[in-house]
Amino acid sequence: MNHHISNIWNSPKTSAAGLLIAVVSIASVLSQQGITLGAAGNGTIVTLVSGLASALLGLLARDPKSQPSSSDSTAKLGAWALIALLMPMPFMTGCSGTSVAQNIVNWTPTLQSAVATVDSTASLLAPADAPIFNAATVGFDAASSLLVAQSKAYLANPTASVLAQLQIAAVTFQQQVNASLMSAARITNPSSQAHVLNAINAVSTVVSAILALVTSISTKAAVAQMASQSTIKLAMVRPYLNESSAAAMVASHYGEPVEWAQAQQRQVELSAAQAGF
After folding, report:
1. Same domain as 97, residue 80
2. 180 and 266 share a domain?
C-alpha cells in the first residue's frame, strides 16, 4: 500500500493522467448506457465531466516544463488516442440529422477552397503532367457544387429522400477523388507529383470528413449500399494519402490538438474500411 502511495507522490503527472483517463472511460460507459446524471447547460453532467477531464489531460500533455522522453511521447500519443476513441469525434457526433447537416455545411467553405486550389494547380506542373492532372480532376467543380447544394438542402429539409441524394453526392465525389489519386501515380516528375498530391489530399480530407458525417446518420442498409458503390477502396489509395496534412486540417477546423485529430483520422479510416469503403 505504501509503495502505491509513494508511486503516486513520485509521479504526480502520470498519476493525474491515469485518473483523467479513468474518468473519461467511466463517463463514456455511462453515456453509452444512457446515464446522464442530470442536465448541464445544453449537455449533460456526464459529458461535461468527460470534457473537462479530456481538457485537463490536454494541458498535462502540453506542459512546457516537462522534457518528455521518447517513451513519454509514446505514452502521450497513446493517451490522446484513447481519449479520441472514447469521446465522440467532432465529425461523428450529432443527435439529429440537422446537427450533422450543419456540421457538413460548416465544412463546405474549406471544400470550395480546396477545389479552387486544385483548379490553379495545373499551372504549377510540368507541361507533360498538366493534361493528366486536368483529366483526373475535371469533375471536381461539379461534384463540389452538388455536394454543397445537397448539404444545404438536407440542412433545410432533413428528410430520408433528401438524405438519399446527399449520400449519392458524397459517395460519387469520394470515388472521383479516389480515382484522381490513382491517376497521380502516372505522374513521375517529383515536383509535379508533390503539387498534385497536396492539392488532391486537401479535397480528399474534406470529402472523407463529410462522408463520415453522412454515414453517421445513415441506416446500416444505406451504408452498405453506399459502400457497394465505392469500387475504389480506401486501401487502394492509402499510399497516396498524407495523414499528417489531413490531421492538421481536421485539427484546424475543429480547434483541437493535432494528436487528437490523428487518432480521430485513424478511427474514421478504420470505420470506413470495416463498412466496406
Report:
1. no
2. yes
Cell numbers standing for residue 276: 466496406
| Contact assessment for residue 257 and residue 246, using Cβ atoms and an 8 Å cutoff | no
Q: pLDDT of 176-233, one tens digit each? A: 999 999 998 899 999 999 999 999 999 999 999 999 999 999 999 999 999 999 999 9
CB proximity list for 99: less than 8 A, separation 6 or greater: 93
Q: 154-182: b or e for each residue (b if 16 or more CB lie within 10 Å)?
A: bbeebeeebbeebbbbbbbbbbbbbbbbe
On the question of pLDDT at 61 being above 90, the answer is no
Rounded to whole angstroms, what are the CA distances from 206 to 76, 167, 201, 257? 27, 15, 9, 18
> Is residue 77 packed enough to be buried (19+ CB in 10 Å), middle (13-18) or exposed (0-12)?
middle
CB 54 within 8 A of CB 87: yes
Q: Please state the length of the chain.
A: 277
Q: Which residue has the higher pLDDT, 57 or 83?
A: 57
Q: How distant is the alpha carbon of residue 231 from its chain centre?
A: 21
The end-to-end CA distance of the chain, in Å, is: 51
* Dihedral sign of CA atoms 152, 156, 158, 164 in order: negative
127 in the same domain as 240: yes
Q: DSSP per residue over 203-217, as a string?
A: HHHHHHHHHHHHHHT
Give ∠ CA 245-68-24 in degrees, rounded to 5: 70
Segments forming the whole domain that contains residue 226: 92-275
